[in-house]
User: Fold this.
Amino acid sequence: MRKLFCLMLLLSVPVLASDDEEARIKTAVEDRYKEWIAAANKKDAAALTNLYDENAVLMPKEEEPAIGKAAIGEYYKKLVADPHFVPFTLTLNWNSFHLVGDIAIATALFEGDVTRNGKQIHFRGKNLLVWKKQADGSWKIFRYMFDEIPEKK
Assistant:
């Protein structure tokens, strides 16, 4: 019985420590996403691409998926070269976060504004981000999917 109790105690230690670890990792990936916003607003395709894992998949709205870091880099080069892609404000409301080993899964609602051709446009949407821990301890985007939510009529 004593051995069983000790085993149960040992197995519960990682669970007890995981709340602090999960909070730390959630903060780390939220900060990484702020880097994504900053790079997008600078139209820096290389910095955007560098936030992705080598085997990442990007699933942008109304487009084919970009599979692998090289394809994601090409997607961002094309995106930032588009004159309609202009700086924007973005606020995220992270509504779920789950950690499984070296994978972190987060969802958020986002809201923002952009000024295009002198007209201010408000947008809102949702995203799903899967982050993967790298060998150096950093977190990179492994899967990213987003879409806008149309205004209610």
